[in-house]
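Reviewer 2 asked us to include a model.

Predict the structure of this chain.
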Amino acid sequence: MIKEFVILGGGSAYTPGLLQALIHQGNSLGLTRVRLFDTDAEHLELVGRLGQAMARSAGVNFTVETADTLEAAVRGADAVLNSTRPGGFGARRMDETLPLSLGIPGQETVGPGGFFFALRSVPEALRVADMLEKVAPHALLLNYTNPSNIVTQALVNRGGVRVLGLCDQSDEDLHDLAHALGHAGQAIDFRCNGLNHATWYSDMRFGGEAVIEFPATLQAPPGLNAEHVLRFELSLKLARETPGFWPNSYLPYYMAPERFVALSKEEGPRSDAIVAKLPSYYAHFREEAVKDTPVLRHHRGTAGFGDLAVTVIQALQQAQGGSLVLNVENQGTTALFAPTTVVESRGNLGPAGWTRVPAAAVPSGHTGLLHQLENYQHLAAEAARTGREVTILKALAANPLVGTKAQADALWALARAHYGALLPLLA
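Predicted model (structure tokens):
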């Protein structure tokens, strides 16, 4: 049973939304304590006060606390959510902009930007695993830190702790598709197979209605930013070439990288837009934290972030469990990947753990890219673990958006020149 739940990255602007999702469930989750930890002491204290006020106002049976060290945060924990951003938004901005000078998309999960993020996030995740093994050996580590597949792969390779990788992209993609098809709010059923941010959805049903083919034109749902609109439009093109399938919305990056490079240069870094909004989030938290009945109206991210974490906890607590898409070691889920590869697929999660369900096929013409990404995933996890330059260069060259040793060498030279202390192994 999960009684003590820890959120690493607890001072982020995402956390109040997650706390709200936990509180919304009342006492049904069976939690007794939610503990927050963050390296940003000021934001941690503020989000902690807000969370405490929200919990008191709602009358739930669990308390919200903060801890000032990682060890104090995870000691005795039943489950730990790793939702951190090593390097902060300064490093993310570098991830998004540095590759553009070489005509490569800049993005925090795919391409070289995702690789440089992994060089920061994997060592921190391994440090968390070391601490769990020491002070909370029975805890379940839920990894929500990007790039989820590489971080989870490194944790699986390490062993010694139970780990599940979380990502709500499948929910986002299929809810967007449902909205575009006129099925918003209806039940969605599907299968999926692939790697994180590189899956294919199949056997899709919206409100019980099977969808196999898609119209030549399909309007993207309202409210999407320019990058998401482009991803939707290119996903539709891929889907029309592969009847019965819909791609993860990050796969178009490999289909038309030049389109994303051009858009990034036109729109500017996504991180700049996020950073511009952060002061308003924390100002709102500050206002609500002093109220007897705080009302959270403004926080970073959609409900999907908190909802997925709550759904995972519910599945682990309830006898019937639940069907979820998670990142787990393959071990027979699909013949497409090696047994030790962390795949993203749908299965059943319950009190006894993860039950694998055989994954569906993927479009035959797209297996080559998935095998490239699998090789890259393993190399990137190893490079981030060791910090060895020879492995770093090999992993970079294996990334399909980089592709050559010359490009890998050029990217690493740029990284060495520009990241500095933002990339600890270069500090």
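The chain has a mean pLDDT of 96. The first helix runs from residue 15 to 24. We have added this to the supplementary material.
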